[in-house]
């Protein structure tokens, strides 16, 4: 009898081949029914020969099936597991390595309850697999289960301290763009009950895990859905002592952070020039491409550099001291030297220097504001750039004061402009905080 007319028999033989890892039998079945693998692929949830081989650890058979039908690696069986999930469950580590070696994107596959291979490795404490998965797919650390849990939640819940160390170490070692925000988001991710990993750790008896977490940038004052901090729910006096030693607070001592809705309501009711200015600046910056922002940043930096250099070497230069200066007096008793009052001052007249200082200050401060706006796109970089520019501006003003032929020029023109920049910056930061950007 032609076996192609007996699909049930072919399916049984194919399953037998997968159970025993018999590649010859696999091809015998394919010869009898060339479309058998295609028919299996049409079923949404099905146990494929790859699932069976992955569970049994038949490495060569699984590799052969993956070469014939790569899509099988992504399929979920009736229990919601892919082949790589089954390999992990059955401790078939060589099979897992073979899967991700053939297709590194399998690290992304989500199974039952949103569990990825990284979640499984974290649950089982497989630190070598954790490192492998993170190297192949760094963004997998951001994936959440249906309970809104990260791999760190799972490591803490299952008391896998070494796995937690690897995951925290990965976050700290990451130097890619946005790494600091990523670390903060992952460490403070809340599950479906609003618990961060600090809450979960406080409920356990693992002192090492808690000590590790409090040494990171984790939020010690985060509240869960029951409005409790980690200190409120700590399980032992030792855990409580650790939390208190790093400044953790009870919920009654922690003010609720303003919500996004509160900030939006505040924006709607607060009509200030700073809010309007920040809105226009933010929209203008958002409309620019990365290339355009870089061009503006380069131009502003060049202008600021040129203006600062013109203060160090003003037009016409500065008065120099000479040995023949009639005003030069040396007093031998205390070895002090009295120099002419105009030494180091600009040779320009007071009127011309006033015009020069106004134009120079306007150009320099405009460039400084442009640099702050174009270079600051996040909380950390914004504060960093603003701090550098704030430190640089007094140096500029001191140089301007030093070369001014009269002190009045700088006091009249420099101070108001500096106060304007400071006030503008404060208003911008306040408005950005209200908007939830800083």
From TrEMBL:
Which InterPro entries does this one have?
Answer: Ankyrin_rpt, Ankyrin_rpt-contain_sf, PGG_dom
Q: This chain belongs to which protein, by name?
A: Ankyrin repeat protein
Main location, first listed in the record: membrane
Q: Where are the ANK repeats?
A: 113-135, 193-225
Out of the domains of life, which is the source? Answer: Eukaryota
Q: Which UniProt keywords apply?
A: ANK repeat, Membrane, Transmembrane, Transmembrane helix
Compartment annotation: Cell membrane
- SUPFAM superfamilies (UniProt xref): Ankyrin repeat (SSF48403)
Record membrane topology: Peripheral membrane protein
A Pfam family recorded for this sequence: Ank_2
Instruction: Give the transmembrane ranges.
Output: 295-312, 352-376, 383-404, 410-433
Q: Which GO terms describe its cellular component?
A: plasma membrane
Q: Which residues form the PGG domain?
A: 289-389
Residue ranges the record marks as coiled coil: none
